[in-house]
Amino acid sequence: MTVPTFLTWLRVAAIPLILGVYALPHGWLAPPDRNLIATVLFILSAITDWFDGFLARRWNQTSAFGAFLDPVADKLMVSATLLVLLELSRIGALVALIIIGREIAISALREWMARIGQSRKVAVNWLGKVKTATQMVAIPFLLYDGRLFGLIPTSVWGTWLLDIAAALTLWSMLYYFKLALAGIKLSE
């Protein structure tokens, strides 16, 4: 077990903690406290996502298992949190469906492209990274659901950013499918 893999496992372990904050009986935590705890857990998890990749490259501790687990942890964390936000009526079902559906579709596409020896055609690119960064800022804003520093209405900014992330999600999905189809035609 390497440190980067351990950090990835910590991200997976944070998922039930984020869910659990909202599952506690009413009266145990005031809503603002629940929101703050969930926000902090999500932000710490998002930081480990960057940090585990950095350490794996820096310490030359990359592995096939780590390369598999890291995106799975990310997708589980984002999907679970989106479902919490949906349950709390902080996001719409369409936005959640677009983001979660894209993750499933692109994962299936990457698996299929790997089977036919064309996995490089659908490698992560800048568009996917921008989409992910936008989501990772939007989600904590939506979890917090208050006024940051008494000034910034996080629900407004979070909704706006998640809508942008959903648009980027569709754009990146179409881009990956276009690359995949072009790769298949070239190899025929």
Detailed description of the structure:
With 188 residues, the chain is an all-alpha fold. The protein has one domain (3-187): Four Helix Bundle (Hemerythrin (Met), subunit A). 79% of the residues lie in helices and 2% in strands. It is built from 6 helices and 2 strands; from the N terminus they run αααααββα. It has helices at residues 3-23, 31-58, 64-87, 93-115, 126-144, 154-187, and strands spanning 147-148, 152-153. The protein has a two-stranded antiparallel ribbon with strand order 1-2. Helix 3 crosses helix 5 (126-144) and helix 4 packs parallel to helix 6 (154-187). The chain is globular and about 55 Å long.
What is the residue-averaged pLDDT?
88
Radius of gyration based on Cα positions:
18 Å
Which parts are unreliable, with pLDDT below 50 for 5 consecutive residues or more? none
- Shape summary: globular
In N-to-C order, the SSE pattern is HHHHHEEH
> Numbering strands along the chain, what is their spatial order in the largest sheet?
1-2
* Quaternary structure of the protein: single chain
Largest sheet properties: 2 strands, antiparallel
- What portion of the residues fall into strands of 2 or more residues? under 5%
N-to-C terminal Cα separation, in Å?
41 Å
Structural class given helices, strands, pairing? mainly alpha
